[in-house]
Amino acid sequence: MRITDIRELSVPLQGNIANALVSFAEHTVSLVAVCTDQLRDGRPVTGLAFNSIGRFAQGGLLRERFLPRLHAAPPDSLLDAGGTRFDTAAITRVLMRNEKPGGHGDRAAAVAALELAFWDLNAKLAGEPAWQTIARHFGHTPQGQGVPVYAAGGYYYPPGHAGSLADELRAYQDQGYTAFKMKIGGAPLAQDMARVESALGVAGGDGSRLAVDANGRFDLPTALDYARALAPLRLRWFEEIGDPLDYALNAQMAAVYPGAIATGENLFSARDVDNLLRHGGMRPGRDVFQMDPGLSYGLGEYARMLSAMEAAGFARQQAQPHGGHLINLHIVTGLGLGGCEAYPGVFQPFGGYAPGCRLQAGRVWPTDAPGFGLEEKPELAQPIRQLLTGSTA
Ligand code: MG
Question: How much of the chain exceeds pLDDT 90, in percent?
């Protein structure tokens, strides 16, 4: 078995939306394909993945640095002992040759897109959904009851945009979502609290069904002001309160904010997570870890993060990865994590799930499609076709 081609396509995100700090209008994502000489139903088996959402495409790093290393490796050195599956740990070692420790940055997303494509590939070689491949590899037995899911949105729209936050959340409710997340920190406190109240109205006044996300915007005094205003609402969680690497601020907030704090989506390595565990004041049984495999070297590094959490007394149910898309749905399902984000209305063509994914009573189930099932998502059909054939039609 050998790789015949590896392709990358930079795909722009659709939608002119912004969080407290960043406009997504210019964001791109790397869609990658690993093509092999193996055939299923007469067609070459091809692994597909992408580097999650919220950063940028990594075609430059892939072409200049990572793909040449993979192409130079002896084909057999990339396979497991049986020679019938790719060894994702061996592939990561090849990709990371001559890379110094630390300074993760964009390379963590470049490597992640590739590593995840090999998980898709291995699942397709086995003819099974990726969650089954993942569960077996990591020795986990999923319960088969779907995973908890919430709809993330509630962004700041440009002036003149029709509709309201409440309309947006009601639309998610109509699709079957029962819990929501919205952005804060892009407007003054009083205005944000009015937005939170209107969102809570859609959630039936139940704070456990609404999370807020400040996207790392607040300094300590502002964070404390918001914490005082939000605490009585008993929200689902208060996300990325300050700079993602300001563990002292996180610890100070954990000491005074009684509700759950969520963070971790901008940590890109297990070492970063070690530091959050040592210095961030995260509380076992309460707070939420949101590291995202697609932004942090893929599933191998993510599994090391989970091990670090568990060794420090946290439960894997406290992990809910950032990134509401099919790849993370399979990872959450396969590893038995606490829940899944969904982007039903934003970040197309990658956000949200395939139409066949069942959504019921606040839980979501992947389909039985082989791999991550990206081919089942209608919005991805054109980018996948362009990636594989070069056709822009
Ligand atoms: Mg966030």
Answer: 87
